[in-house]
Amino acid sequence: MPRTPSRVEPVGDAHEERLEYALWQVNRTLLKALDDELKPLCLTMAQFGTLYRLAVYGPMSAADLARDVGMRPQTVAQNVTALLKAGHVHRRRHPVHKRILLVELTEQGRRVWEDADRRAAAVERRIQDALGERRHQSMCRDAWKIVDAFGGLPDEAAGDRL
């Protein structure tokens, strides 16, 4: 019976020499690593992003969250609903505009976000360990140059119009 290689061998495909293909594979790898880190906390990447925004910028309306992260309002509503059920956020009326409901972290939500952020930082450390400090910083700058070259971060809400 033939031995199965421990890692995938290159097939000589021209795509493997292209940066966009390599970045796609990096994206898939990092999403899996982050998903694996967040799974014990019962958080998705989108929910982690929502908690991050609330932890850093404070209470926001669901509409502001959607605009801020470039997501569809329906996607943000799903994330907020799941976070409400888990007890990580609560809603309260805006102090001036009473019809607007603000989404705010609970103490439990802040603790979960801090744990999730530590887990995400562990993934970042693995990247830094693999690249070394100077190459890590350089790659981070280059990644943002690529984002800028394509006009900035994509707006998920416009995704079906692109």
Structural features, described:
- Strand 2 and strand 3 form a beta hairpin.
- With 162 residues, this protein is mainly alpha-helical.
- The longest helix has 25 residues, at 107-131.
- It contains six helices and three strands, in the order H-H-E-H-H-E-E-H-H.
- The model is unreliable at 1-5 and 157-162 (pLDDT under 50).
List the defining traits of the structure above.
162 residues, single chain, globular
Question: Quick summary of this structure?
Answer:
This protein is mainly α and 162 residues long.
Summarize the topology:
Blueprint: H1 19-38, H2 45-57, E1 60-61, H3 62-69, H4 73-86, E2 89-93, E3 101-105, H5 107-131, H6 133-149
Antiparallel strand pairs: 1-3, 2-3
Helix pairs in contact: 1-5, 2-5, 3-4, 5-6
